[in-house]
Design a protein that fits this description.
The complex is a heterodimer of chains A (295) and B (428). With 295 residues, chain A is mainly α. Chain A is built from 13 helices and two strands; from the N terminus they run αββαααααααααααα. In chain A, a hairpin with an 8-residue loop joins strand 1 and strand 2. In chain A, helix 3 packs antiparallel against helix 10 and helix 4 crosses helix 7. The longest helix of chain A has 36 residues. Classes of the chains: A mainly alpha (295), B alpha/beta (428). The interface between A and B is medium-sized, with 33 and 37 residues.
């Protein structure tokens, strides 16, 4: 009894600094954002006007919000497909023995490299590659006789968002695949050997052993990908600024522009609250999914 | 071991704490925030600060600098935080106006009329920093915008003189196109480059008083941004894109890349700030020969054909400063003729100080451009700094939409009007 109480105290003392830091830098600002969102104010003016839920009413009537939400959704869906699904397929392929051992090592490193490059550098690099006429992509298409399909990828309202989203896939799919490699290695080898004796091919093994075996990792990866899609900002800001004409605006760039360029801090806080609620919903779903583990 | 280290550290802190008051108490401290962190530029400022501190032992200056774009964010954050620098950079026009309206800046009218400031700045330079009759800023730089052109490409297309009117410009561009040359290089990935065209054309197509009332949102609600000149400016802009007077897909290019195509001799014209002229040395363009001309006049335009797009930028003094006298003394020292000339030489930016720009410190073309600005009927300030930022937030993407052909000028103007009315209502 006594021993247990001492244990609690020790645990509390050791957790306190982390909890304190979280409280000051995460929870407090979150609560503050709610408070800000109920006011109309700018960074320059000392006057705050309480407007209740007026910012939210305006926000939900603002077409830019819905445009941004659609773009975040595109980002999430494409990322789930490429990073989680294709990432898993890549990992399974690298681990299956189809690829020779040494070659597998080479591929693992090559697909991982984009994830260690700084985002700004990647953004600028791809901006160059996407340039009309002088960019590598345009030139390659022209050389392949596809000049008719060439576009100003980042400058065209129809293609800007997809062009940016694909850069993130290029960057992160390899990273997620490598995390799946680790998860696959944790699956007991015997299961594969036994299934082989039962006559299962690689595809059957993937669906019946690999996939259930990495379920936990897959849920975490899917959650990380979705959170990433909700809060994406940097790559979009570097490559298109959310433009042209808001064609690649996401919640993050919309928030930033509203707060720091248009100087509507209350309104920007309302956007932040919406992002927070979205992340919260997905967080709850993730917790729910992880609890329902099939034994 | 640990305890000893902690003790030593503690002793160190105690020692510095004990030492500090002796030196600091007597000194007036000035916080100074600007937007020229580039190595050469910051070296100039450091030198000026050192010289000023040496001459004024009672003053110490804490300087901070962040680049152009991040500056716009930084200044809002420091304003909201309450740690307002004593002296801070601002563009002129509405950008400074928002600080003035919020009561964050000192009235410098009386100070600048004092003998130590006499003849420092041309009166026109102070106008964009004057609000309700009170001067609020000390100008640092002047900049003006001109159409730079490639002489060889003009000659090859049979253009003998730079166009003076809009119809002449169209004729010249048709000749260039017929000669398989892109008439104008434009990159609007960052849309301010578009704003300079629209801003200039607005001054030429909308009468001055109407435009001023619209920009400041003083016009009555049913009149705000209703003059047809605004839509006309956007229409011309859209036509420049659709008729191939601009390069393909300006929205995909940065301003720097667009300039690159111009200096590489692949486009005949580029709408350039005087400051940008210094990028031409050693390029294909320099070999071809180049010059510049004013944005041509619209013969039937309802606005002021004599204005040139350009503006001073400079410094404001915080209303909350504890040391206004020292702040002004520093700004006075920063803008002496000698320092103005030195700054122009280092940064390439034409100093706003009268008599500081000579051909010894800058390119003859830059000096000539600034001289033309002096003779203009007025300065058309940068559109994106002259209107409320929320209206700009609708105007800029609208220009991209017109370029891309996804929205009509009238649709864009409707959105601008709606936002202008909303902001006007909120201002009350």
């Amino acid at each position: 009894m006594h021993y247990a109480r001492g244990n609690y105290l020790a645990a509390a003392i050791m957790l306190a600094p982390a909890v304190l830091l979280l409280a000051v830098f995460v929870y407090l600002p979150t609560i503050e954002a709610f408070r800000y969102s109920l006011h109309r104010w700018s960074s320059l003016s000392p006057t705050w006007t309480y407007v209740g839920f007026e910012n939210f009413r305006e926000l939900f009537a603002d077409p830019t919000l819905w445009r941004a939400l659609i773009h975040n959704t595109i980002y999430a869906v494409v990322s789930l497909f490429f990073q989680v699904f294709i990432g898993l397929v890549l990992a399974a392929t690298l681990e299956s023995g189809i690829v020779r051992r040494r070659l597998a090592g080479f591929f693992r490193i090559s697909i991982f490299i984009p994830s260690i490059l700084p985002i700004t550098a990647i953004g600028l690099l791809w901006t160059m590659l996407y340039q009309p006429a002088v960019g590598l992509i345009d030139q390659a298409m022209t050389a392949a006789g596809l000049a008719a399909w060439s576009r100003a990828w980042l400058g065209d309202e129809q293609t800007a968002v997809v062009a940016v989203v694909m850069v993130s896939q290029w960057q992160w799919t390899g990273y997620i695949a490598l995390l799946f490699v680790v998860a696959i290695r944790a699956i007991p080898k015997e299961l594969y050997e036994a299934s082989m004796l039962d006559g299962a091919g690689p595809v059957a093994q993937f669906w019946n052993i690999t996939l259930p075996g990495v379920r936990e990792t897959a849920i975490v990866m899917a959650s990380i990908t979705v959170y990433g899609a909700i809060k994406v900002f940097d790559i979009v800001w570097v490559m298109t600024n959310g433009g042209p004409n808001s064609a690649s605006e996401v919640l993050g760039t919309f928030l930033y522009r509203t707060a720091f360029r248009n100087d509507m801090v209350g309104y920007a806080s309302a956007i932040a609250v919406v992002m927070f609620c979205l992340a919260l919903i997905f967080g709850l779903i993730q917790i729910r999914l992880q609890r329902e583990r099939p034994e | 071991m640990h305890r000893r280290a902690a003790l030593a550290l503690g002793a160190g802190f105690a020692a510095t704490a004990a030492l500090r008051p002796a030196g600091a108490q007597a000194k007036a401290e000035l916080n100074f925030l600007h937007k020229w962190p580039e190595p050469d530029n910051i070296a100039f400022f450091r030198q000026v600060v050192r010289e000023f501190e040496a001459a004024n032992p009672g003053v110490s200056i804490k300087m901070e600098a962040v680049a152009d774009d991040p500056y716009k964010d930084k200044i809002r954050v420091v304003m909201a935080s309450g740690n307002v620098p004593d002296i801070f950079f601002s563009w002129s026009g509405e950008y400074a106006g928002q600080f003035v309206r919020a009561g964050r800046t000192l009235d410098l009218t009386a100070a600048l009329a004092a003998p130590e400031w006499k003849d420092r700045f041309a009166p026109a330079t102070l106008v964009p920093f004057t609000f309700e009759g009170k001067v609020r800023g000390v100008p640092m730089n002047l900049s003006a915008k001109f159409l730079a052109y490639n002489k060889a490409l003009f000659a090859a297309a049979g253009i003998t003189a730079p166009p003076a009117t809009f119809p002449e410009l169209i004729t010249a561009m048709d000749k260039l196109k017929a000669n398989n040359v892109v008439p104008i290089a434009l990159g609007t990935q960052a849309p301010w480059a578009a704003a300079h065209y629209i801003g200039d054309w607005n001054t030429k197509l909308v009468p001055n008083d109407i435009r001023a009332a619209d920009y400041s949102l003083a016009a009555p609600e049913d009149k705000l941004f209703t003059h047809p000149g605004y839509a006309q400016a956007l229409t011309h802009f859209g036509e420049f894109a659709s008729k191939g007077y601009f390069n393909r897909s300006p929205n995909a290019l940065t301003h720097a890349i667009a300039r690159g195509t111009f200096t590489a001799g692949r486009a005949a014209m580029f709408y350039e700030e005087t400051l940008g002229f210094k990028n031409y040395a050693g390029t294909k363009l320099a070999a071809d020969g180049w010059s510049f001309f004013k944005m041509p006049a619209f013969p039937d335009g309802a606005g002021d054909q004599g204005q040139i797009t350009g503006a001073p930028d400079g410094f404001l003094v915080s209303a909350a400063t504890k040391n206004p006298k020292e702040a002004l003394a520093f700004l006075n020292f920063l803008t002496t003729r000698a320092n103005g000339a030195a700054w122009t030489k280092v940064s390439g930016r034409p100093s706003a100080v009268q008599g500081a720009i000579t051909e010894e410190v800058t390119l003859p073309e830059i000096a000539a451009g600034i001289a033309q600005l002096g003779q203009a009927t007025g300065m058309a300030l940068w559109l994106d700094t002259v209107i409320d930022p929320r209206v700009v937030g609708v105007y800029l993407p609208g220009m991209q939409a017109v370029l891309g052909g996804t929205e009509t000028p009238q649709q864009v103007m409707d959105k601008i009007r709606a936002m202008a009315i909303r902001v006007k209502k909120e201002r009350g």
